[in-house]
Write a structure and sequence with these properties.
Blueprint: H1 7-21, H2 27-41, H3 49-61
Amino acid sequence: MAVNNNPERFVSVLGEAAIALWSELPQEIQQQLFEHAVRLGHKSERDESLREQLAQFLHDHHERTAAR
């Protein structure tokens, strides 16, 4: 059995799991994850567009996403 220890795979599946469970997470955890994602994403983006894009993505995928 081959083991796939590719860190990108782990990041991807953890991200997908967080998105799948987003509406079940407490608002405080949602906020922490959201802000951390924005900070990480700003390593490659120079403006606030990521914040708006991420908020829109979450809103589009989860009707019960906590208000920001």
